[in-house]
Specification:
306 residues; alpha/beta; Rossmann fold; 12 helices; 8 strands; hydrolase; Acetyl esterase/lipase; triacylglycerol lipase activity
Amino acid sequence: MPSLRFSFLCALGLMAGAPLSAQQPAAPAPTQANVPYGKHAKQVLDFYQAKAADGGATPLLFFVHGGGWMTGDKVNPDFLKQCLDDGISVASINYRFIPDAQAEGITPPVKACLDDSARALQFVRSKAAEWHIDKNRIGGCGGSAGGFTVLWLGFSPDMADPKSTDPIAHESTRLKCVLAFVPQTTLDPKQMKDWIPNLDYGPHAFGLGSMQEFLDKRESLMPWIERFSPYALASKDDPPVLLFYDSVADLGKPPAKDPVHSGNFGAGIADKLKAEGIEHEINYNNDYGHMKYPNLFSFLKEKLGR
C-alpha cells in the first residue's frame, strides 16, 4: 500500500520539522532479527536496542505493521531512528495473516492476528531483564490494521494469566500510550456503515465474503465484534491515544476516496473517548495548528518518560 506508507512518511518528516528527504537515512539494523515468539514462521519480531543515558532500562515502542491483516512486514518501523536517538528501544512484529488463520481453522480469523500481537507483547516483556527494557514504559504504534491492533491492545483488559504454567503468559498486555495512523476503530458493520456509508471493509476479518453477509450475520457475531472493537472496549482506565488521519472527517457522509482510512473512524470514536475520560488527540487532514502534540514523536517522548 505505497500511498498510505508515503502519507505516514510525510507526516513523520513534517512533524520532525525537516524535509522528507532528510528523514530517510539507511534504516538501523536490528540488534536481534527474526526472534521467534511462537511456533509459526510469521510469529517473529525484530528488536532494536537503544542506549539509556544512565545505563539502565529503556522504554520501548511496540510497532505493529498494517496491511489489512493480509499483507505487510515488520521492516523499517515508524519512528525507528527517532526512538533510538532518544533512548527508546523498538520491537517490530510480524504475525499470522487472515489466510494463515483460516488454514489453521481459527474462528474468527482476525483472532489469530490480534492474539499474536498480545503474545508478542508478553514475550517482549518477558525479555525485560535481558534486553534492558522498562516493562512499565511500553507504548504502541501502528498504521491502518496495525493501528487498530495497538488500539485493541491499549483498550483491552489485561490478558495476563498469573495461574498459567507458561511464564510468558504471566506478563501484562497493557500499554502506556498508543499512537495510531489512519486506524479503523470498530469492526461493527452497522456502525461502520453509519459512519462511512460507502465502506466495504471488515468481512474478511470474520471469514465472510461480502459486507451484506457481514450485516446479515452481525447479531450472531456481536460477542466477537465487542471483544475486538476499540470503540466497544474503550474505558476510563485506558492509556492516552493520538490518532492521525490524512483526510477530513464528515461523519455519516461517504468520503470521496479511501473510505478504509477515513477520518470518520476518528470522528466516530471521539465522543466515546471523551465520555470515558480517555486522554486523546485526533488529527485530521494534516491540520496541526490545534494540536497539543504537533510533533507526533513528542507525544511518545512525553508519555514514555523521555
